[in-house]
Amino acid sequence: MADIIVGLLVVSFTMFFYSMNRYKTFKLLNRDEREKYKFIARKMKAERTEEEQEFYFQTQDSYYSLQISKYSFLLAIILIVVYRFYIVFL
Fold first, then answer.
1. What distance in Å separates the CA atoms of residue 26 and residue 39, rounded to the nearest whole number?
2. What is the structure's pLDDT at 21?
3. Which H helix or E strand runs over 17?
């Protein structure tokens, strides 16, 4: 059981690390990209160009990937703590 939890921790940490490593800056969007995303998000879908639509979807994918990896990493940490308490008290 501990091996599975540690494996989950390692996998989720690497997912989190690589999700943050966008363009080697370790953040989701820089200031220019954030302004571009806000500008594109205000437009109606029919008014967006193909390039703007692709950027919009790519940014959303990156954001949700980061959120999933972050919460799976936190879940793995919680599972390790719960497992340690389970071993100690039983």
1. 23
2. 64
3. helix 2-20
| pTM more than 0.90 | no
| pLDDT one-digit tens code per residue, 13-50 | 787 777 666 655 556 677 888 899 899 999 998 999 99
**Three-state secondary-structure class, residue 90:** coil
The total of other beta-carbon atoms located within 10 Å of residue 52's CB is 17
Q: Which two tokens stand for residue 64?
A: 């949700």
